[in-house]
Every structure is written in structure tokens, then in C-alpha cells.
């Protein structure tokens, strides 16, 4: 995660103009609310330096509030990450897809992979026929473990982690210019408050492990949880400003890290 997140952030800074992706380098804070949390904040800073993230520094709560007056008076200190940026989450994948199409990629939609088998070459069996290939790249999100486990003896387990968000009207877009994180827990980076490239404020995500890999319902409980946690960072966050809510599933590998590379027992399967 450390390697590819740092590399990916640098690539976005170069790609956004070429692919016409909405992008803004707005910076971020990781907020700490207790004196005990200063040690964890220092550990995050040290990790950032080791991973090649440039410009990080630890600042006081008062310094945070000078830059972002809406931030809670309970904030003791923060890690300031000036290199952090936001992008258009819809426009980015569409831009990558268009670029792939221009370079010869063909898309087959609404087709479920049943298994991946290899003899001399790969046969990808689907519910709409078979495809043959020399190389297979498995990036099936929450289903990537199931695809992997049909092909490799090295089994993976993906847990679907549901996150609920809410979006505020643009009239509240000046609540914060920086992306506001909280000190992370074992469930992830926690609920954030962030501007979007379109001028809204987004709040979320919650973190709930679910068994159903298609379960993306929004809930009253999820909305309340996201707002309650977000208001620890920005107490004046207005519930009346919410214009929509939505949820998504992220792939949580039980090993805790990304799995990227060629399978040793299945050459050509990535």
C-alpha cells in the first residue's frame, strides 16, 4: 500500500492534464484529539518520511485552526500533508477507460467470470462463453479472491467492507479546504470531511464488514454514524446541508495489504 499509494499520487499529478481529470492539490490533516495520540501521530510522520511522502509536518491544534477555522477546539495536534490531493471519482475511471479504448482495449460488459483455467494458455470461463488469453490480470474488486481461488493454490480471502457517505450542498463548500482525516484505527482511516473537486463537502466513510458482496444499501444508522464521527472534526457540520447519501464496498484483504504480482504457481496470472 505504501509503495503504490505514493507512486499513484505522483502519477495523478502528471496524468490529470493529459487525461482531463478534475484534480486539486488541496492538502490534508490527520487530526489528533488527545495528548496520548501524539505518539501515534509521530509514528505516522515517520512512516510518511520512510515511504517518500514529501513536505509532511506535525503542527499544533491552534495552527490547524488558523488554516481551517471550522476545525474542533478539541484538536490537540495534527499531521499536515500538503501533497494530498482530490480528484473526480467518476471522471477518473472514465478517463482511464477512454484512454484504454483508444489504445486498443475491448470491453465486454455484464459478463460474470466463472473460473480461470490454464493449460498451454488461459481459458477464462464466463456465463457468456469462454475467452482465451496468454495473460490474465485479476482486478475484480471484492470478488478478486473468488477469481484467484479458481486459478491458484495460493488462496486469498476478501472481506467486503461497506462505507456510507453523505454529500453536502455546495453552499457549505467553504467548511474546509483541506481533507480532514482522524487518527486511523484497525478499521481504516476513519470518517473524513473533505471538499470535492466540484465544490461540495463529502463526509464518510463508515466501516462495516458485511457478508453480502453486493450489499450497498444506505441506512439511517450509517448516516448518523458518519455525521457523529465527522462532527468530532467539524462541530458545525450541518445536517440540513445533506443533499444525498450513498455507499460502496471496498476490498479488505484479511492480510491487510494489497496483493500485486504474478502468482508463482500460475505463470501469466497477475
How many strand segments?
A: 14
If you compute it from the alpha carbons, what radius of gyration comes out, rounded to the nearest whole angstrom?
21 Å
Number of helices: 6
Measure the end-to-end span.
17 Å
The oligomeric state of the chains shown is: single chain
Mean pLDDT: 95
Low-confidence runs: none
Q: Quick one: overall form?
A: globular
Into which percentage range does the β-strand content fall?
25-35%
- Main sheet properties: 5 strands, antiparallel
N-to-C series of helices and strands:
HEEHEHEEHEEEHEEEEEHE
Describe the protein:
- With 270 residues, this protein is of the alpha+beta class.
- The chain is 27% helix and 27% strand.
- It contains six helices and 14 strands.
- It has helices at 2-19, 37-50, 61-67, 91-102, 144-151, 220-233, and strands at residues 23-24, 28-32, 57-60, 77-81, 86-87, 113-118, 122-126, 129-133, 158-168, 179-182, 192-195, 201-204, 208-210, 242-253.
- A hairpin with a 2-residue loop joins β7 and β8.
Amino acid at each position: 500500500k505504501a509503495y503504490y499509494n505514493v507512486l499513484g499520487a505522483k502519477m495523478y499529478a502528471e496524468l490529470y492534464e493529459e487525461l482531463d481529470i478534475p484534480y486539486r492539490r488541496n492538502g490534508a490533516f490527520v487530526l489528533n484529539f488527545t495528548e496520548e495520540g501524539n505518539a501515534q501521530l509521530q509514528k505516522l510522520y515517520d512512516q510518511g518520511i520512510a515511504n517518500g511522502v514529501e513536505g509532511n509536518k506535525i503542527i499544533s491544534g491552534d495552527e490547524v485552526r488558523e488554516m481551517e477555522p471550522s476545525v474542533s477546539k478539541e484538536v490537540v495536534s495534527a499531521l499536515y500533508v500538503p501533497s494530498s490531493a482530490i480528484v473526480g471519482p467518476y471522471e477518473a475511471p472514465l478517463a482511464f477507460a477512454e484512454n484504454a479504448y483508444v489504445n486498443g482495449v475491448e470491453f465486454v460488459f455484464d459478463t460474470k467470470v466463472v473460473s480461470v483455467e490454464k493449460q498451454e494458455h488461459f481459458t477464462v470461463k464466463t456465463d457468456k462463453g469462454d475467452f482465451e488469453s496468454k495473460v490474465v490480470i485479476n482486478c475484480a474488486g471484492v470478488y478478486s479472491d473468488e477469481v484467484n481461488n479458481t486459478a491458484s493454490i495460493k488462496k486469498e480471502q476478501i472481506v467486503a467492507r461497506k462505507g456510507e457517505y453523505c454529500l453536502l450542498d455546495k453552499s457549505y463548500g467553504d467548511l474546509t479546504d483541506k481533507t480532514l482525516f482522524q487518527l486511523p484505527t484497525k478499521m481504516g482511516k476513519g470518517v473524513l470531511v473533505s471538499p470535492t473537486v466540484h465544490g461540495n463537502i463529502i463526509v464518510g466513510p463508515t466501516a462495516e464488514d458485511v457478508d453480502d458482496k453486493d450489499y450497498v444499501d444506505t441506512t439511517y444508522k450509517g448516516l448518523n454514524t458518519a455525521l457523529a464521527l465527522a462532527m468530532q472534526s467539524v462541530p458545525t457540520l450541518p445536517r440540513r446541508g445533506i443533499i444525498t447519501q450513498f455507499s460502496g464496498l471496498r476490498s479488505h484483504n484479511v492480510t491487510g495489504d494489497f496483493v500485486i504480482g504474478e502468482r508463482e504457481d500460475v505463470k501469466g496470472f497477475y
